[in-house]
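U., I forgot to send this yesterday:
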Amino acid sequence: MRRGGCTWRSRALGGALALVACAPEVIAPPVPEVMVHRLTAFEYAGTVRDVLGVEATLAREFPGDPPALGFDTVAAAQPPSALLVQIYQHSAEAIAGAVLNSEPARAALFVCEPEPADPSPCLRTIVDSLLTRAWRRPPTEGELARYLALVDPADRDPGLRLVLEAALLSPNFTFRWERDGGAPGESHWLDDHALAARLSYFLWSSAPDEDLLTLAMVGALQHPDTLAREVTRMLADPRADGFVDGFAGQWLYFRGLDDIFRDAHRYPNYDDALRDSMREAMRRRFREFLVPGRDLRDLLLDTHAHVDAELAALYHLEDDLDGDGFTRIDLADHERRGLLTEPGLMTVLAYPFASSPTRRGRFVLEQLLCSPLPPPPPDAAAQAESDASTARERLEQHRANPACAGCHAVLDPIGLAFEHYDAVGAWRGSEHGELIDAAGQLLTGERFDGALELAPLLAEDPRFTRCVATKVMTYALGRQLVADDGPVLEDIHSQFVAKGRDLVALIVAVVQSDPFRARRAQEAP
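Result:
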């Protein structure tokens, strides 16, 4: 029988109704064709860890995944290469050996113990379970037979090692294949296993867990209420760190801290430990919004900070720490507020020897307000050279060039609001003996003095919430948003605002949307 788009069937246990399938009743709307997604190095490592219980150490040597639209998960920017295939092979060999030599990983692989008299049924179960978890879908009978042929029941470890290597080298592992379910060029709803994979790589940067695979197996994942429950469950799971690092790490730039170095003479306290603390503080700040009921504007407005001994020294708060590790400290009477004054953000948006109002202003415009600026002229760096004492004076000279004045009229007031924070995010009152002037005025007329007064203006700017919705949807879909996505994006944004700018509600709206749940069958070449 059908109920609300779901199929129920009478089963045993007194004829109780059991959910069999829950697919949309309407025809899928048109959606753009999308290239198949290749696992990024970050996703590859997370998948190996969660599926096999070992670390993919060689993933650190993978070629860099080029970002597009701000994220490295955009399919169109993920071309494979011969070098990557070679590294995949070496990685698969190392991972297979690690699994069979690790007691916990080995125990997870052997989901049953083969009977000496007839080990075949159990070996079939082991290989079937492995391929289902690694490929995010059950193998076909033909695939299962080919992999089982690699295993000699009398000497199973060498065969299972080959199975592991082959499974990891298969495009079914390294790519997120979504099976076409309609005529070429037509849109159709994703099958449940493909939807489970989209959901898990969106929120975990890793493979579906047993709960998701079980829902997919019985066809129960398509229902909007089920998707909402799964989002809440998955964001409460430690694996949601994949979303923190994958989405927020790129949106808010803290993943870029790995590449930031400073002149040791000018910034003697900046070292690997401080850099790691900066990153962790930003991760903790963002993670606070992965629970229902938080207004995302508070990302810019909160007056607390996550501080450990390294950051406490930068903040001059050594006496306020209680114990080791991170402490959540209220900074209501301090010169900091929310994300915009995080030392990690100020550091990644600075030069090795100095702050950068231009970089900081561009970040606000492009990452928080989705108001991109054209690229600077080729000789902009040379034009910026100046012997002026302060950044404000240097930029005033720079704006004298008509080719630069238009963009800098927008950039400079915002970027100069952060001049009290040096190239490692430490607060300062002056630069080269000159008092810092962080006051400014937006093109819309609002005046502010420093980042603490700028933050509320940005939080109330309607472009902020629309930009967040755009960034989340782009990351979730892994593609450029097109004109046909406009009405869907507006609906998602409206739901986001109506529900108190709750990030969890925004994510739920994205995964319940048609573009997230549908795909277009590829046309014949």
